[in-house]
Write a structure and sequence with these properties.
It is built from ten helices and two strands. It is an all-alpha fold and 214 residues long.
């Protein structure tokens, strides 16, 4: 029982910390984001209307510029699993959950990486996770509507999956899942960054005689 609680505690902590970091967006559930969030909110809403009102897959947005593609838009997020939450709670709350849950995933990812892969203390791991997730980078991009940058919160899971896959190839599945989730999250900047990150990790591993021997 104690082991189970210790494994659940970091996830609960990460979720609570994420809601604390983005508490401002939850003060008014009906308030939408400003800046570029208006564009992403429109894409989500157009997708929701396509499904609910017309019974169609959200492949086309007829409400902008005489009609534009959703399927061909690399920044759309309507194919992400969390988009379908909008069918239950509406676009505004669903988009807020999308941001908050990604932040929680980022906090937990850094904690797991620092605590278990780097072998640091509980306090060091927790502080690293909070400092990274609450940094000015995320405050700026996620606060001004750069929703395609939200996928960068998945960065630590690339490191966890890739480094562990060097010892157990099954962990490569995690890398594939994260890369796929990044595409579905409209991560047009995060995806190529993750490719470069993996290439860097490969070069680092090849330069280590111990890993070459393994």
């Amino acid at each position: 029982m104690a082991t189970r609680r210790s494994s659940i505690a970091p996830a609960v902590f990460s979720l609570l910390a994420a809601f604390a970091l983005y508490s401002e967006i939850w003060r008014d559930l009906s308030a939408t984001g400003w800046g570029d969030y208006q564009e992403y909110h429109h894409l989500w809403e157009a997708g929701r209307i396509a499904i609910e009102r017309f019974g169609e897959w959200p492949l086309w947005d007829p409400f902008q510029c005489g009609g534009i593609t959703q399927y061909g838009n690399p920044q759309t997020q309507v194919f992400h699993p969390l988009f379908y939450v909008s069918l239950l709670v509406g676009t505004t709350i669903a988009l807020k959950l999308f941001l908050t849950l990604h932040a929680a995933a980022g906090i937990l990812g850094v904690y797991v990486y620092v605590r278990h892969d780097e072998g640091r203390s509980l306090i060091a791991s927790s502080m690293s996770a909070l400092t990274w997730a609450g940094s000015g980078y995320f405050a700026w991009h996620c606060g001004t509507g750069h929703a395609d940058f939200i996928a960068f919160y998945l960065t630590p899971w690339i490191l966890v999956g890739w480094r562990r896959s060097l010892l157990d190839v099954r962990w490569a599945v995690l890398v594939g899942v994260v890369m796929s989730a990044t595409v579905f999250a409209g991560g047009v900047y995060a995806f190529p960054f993750f490719v470069l990150l993996i290439a860097h990790q490969c070069a680092w591993a090849l330069a280590d005689p111990r890993r070459r021997a393994a």
